[in-house]
Amino acid sequence: MSKSLKIETVDDLKKYAYNKQKDFAITLNGGVFSRKEIYYYSDTNTFDVFSGIDGTIANFTETEITDEFSNKTNIGKAMKLGGFYLMEEYEPKTCDNCGSYEGYNNSSGDFQCDNCGHDEGE
Ligand SMILES: [Zn+2]
Q1: Average pLDDT of the chain?
Q2: Ligand 1: distance of its center to the CA of 95 in Å?
Q3: CA-CA to 118 of 20 to 30 Å: which in 26, 59, 61, 93?
């Protein structure tokens, strides 16, 4: 299963894609949907973007990836318009705090409840 988390700043993108390739989704213009896998390199402050549609890999600087008027990538535009999401794989389980059968593994790998926000470190 997967759920999505809206990414609104480049700092969030860096946090989630730091040192690991993560799956993101772009929705623009009411439903156009594309998947991107992104890996962030902190040493060069650049991003590798793998496009699921055509199988290409491109490398962008922070300036390029956040440019909402870029003709190379629509990530900046999607982030600006609220259409950029991190896709996270998760396993529902019973929350120790509220008993709700929800929750997911957040990016640090810990369980966090969708219902009450209870964070269960591992
Ligand atoms: Zn809970």
Answers
A1: 85
A2: 5
A3: 26
At 33, list the tokens: 């949907």
Indicate whether this model's pTM tops 0.70. Answer: yes
**pLDDT, tens digit, 9 for 90 and up, residues 30-69:** 776 788 999 999 999 999 999 877 889 999 999 999 999 9
CA distance 120 to 122: 6
Ligand 1 centroid–CA 20 distance in Å is: 28
Which residues, in sequence order, are CB contacts of 119 under 8 Å at separation 6+?
A: 106, 110, 111, 112, 113
Strand pairing partners for 60?
A: 47
Helix (H) or strand (E) holding 4: strand 2-6
Give the distance (Å) from ligand 1 centre to CA of residue 115: 5
